[in-house]
Amino acid sequence: MPSPQLGESPVRVLLAEDDRELRQLLAVALRRDGYEVLEAHDGNHLLELMAASLVSSDGARPDIVVSDVRMPGKTGLELLAGLRRDDRSTPVVLITAFGDPETHAEAYRLGADAVLDKPLDLDDLRLVVQALIAMRR
C-alpha cells in the first residue's frame, strides 16, 4: 500500500493515549497504513509535540489528531477546545472508555470530527482516519 500523502509529505498523525500498550498498538496499526505517527503519553505531551511541530524546520503540522478523552494533564476535551479556539481545522478523533451520551455530545459540541468508544476496533479507527484524510485532499 502506498504511503498516504497530503501534497508532498506523508500524512502525520498525532496520537495521544496514556495507556502505553494501547498507544503502541494504535501507533503500529496506523504506521502499517503508511502514516507518520507521533506519540504523546498524555495531554501535556501532546501540546509539547504540537508546539514543536509549529517551530520545526519542516513546519510540518499534524494532519490529524487522535486523542484519548481522559488523560493526565490536559484531557482530550480540553485539547480539542484549545485547538478549535486557535481556529485550527485539524481533524480530531477522540477515543474514550467513558462513551456516555454526555461525553459524545460535549466532544461534538467542541468540534470533534469523530468519537470512538473503547474497546476500540482497530479497523474502525483506521477507516475514520482514512475518511478524514480523504476529505482534506
Secondary structure topology:
Elements: E1 5-6, E2 9-10, E3 12-16, H1 20-32, E4 36-40, H2 43-55, E5 64-68, H3 76-85, E6 92-96, H4 101-110, E7 114-117, H5 122-136
Parallel strand pairs: 3-4, 3-5, 5-6, 6-7
Antiparallel strand pairs: 1-2
What does this structure look like?
- The chain is α/β, with parallel strands linked by helices and 137 residues long.
- The protein has a single domain, classed as Rossmann fold (3-Layer(aba) Sandwich), CATH 3.40.50.2300.
- It is 45% helix and 20% strand.
- It contains five helices and seven strands; from the N terminus they run βββαβαβαβαβα.
- The chain has a five-stranded parallel sheet, sandwiched between helices. The protein has a two-stranded antiparallel sheet with strand order 1-2.
- Strand 3, helix 1 (20-32) and strand 4 form a beta-alpha-beta unit.
- It is globular.
- The two termini are 18 Å apart.
- The mean pLDDT is 88.
